[in-house]
Design a protein that fits this description.
single chain; 11 strands; 4-stranded antiparallel sheet; mainly beta; 54% strand
Length: 115
């Protein structure tokens, strides 16, 4: 099982980034996918979720209207489009797969929002 995040980096406030998570080793389409983030000195928090069944989504209030989660089951990929980025979005972003009482985590990708 492997989840590999990519797309992080340094961006100015107001800018955009798209994170990608490539999954392998499990039946991707049957797992709900999540993006979490952890800022320095803070607990890891759920940012966005997309279901396996109907691709319904959930967003944390702090990112609602700015971030969009999507998935491509044919490619076993999940994405997080991040717009209007703020300095408080700075964190390590993690991809998580959950299903059948099992969960898998990626290693994370750093996003830094700074001028």
């Amino acid at each position: 099982v492997q989840l590999v995040e990519s797309g992080g980096g340094l961006v100015q406030p107001g800018g955009s980034l798209t994170l990608s998570c490539a999954a392998s080793g499990f039946p991707f389409s049957r797992y709900a996918m999540n993006w979490y983030r952890q800022a320095a000195g803070k607990e890891r928090e759920l940012v966005a979720y997309i279901s396996s069944a109907d691709s319904s989504t959930y967003y944390a209030d702090s990112v609602k209207g700015r971030f969009t989660i999507s998935r491509d089951n044919a490619k076993s990929m999940v994405y997080l489009q991040m717009n209007s980025l703020k300095p408080e979005d700075t964190a390590v972003y993690y991809c998580k797969a959950r299903g059948f009482s099992i969960e898998f985590w990626g290693q994370g990708t750093q996003v830094t929002v700074s001028s």
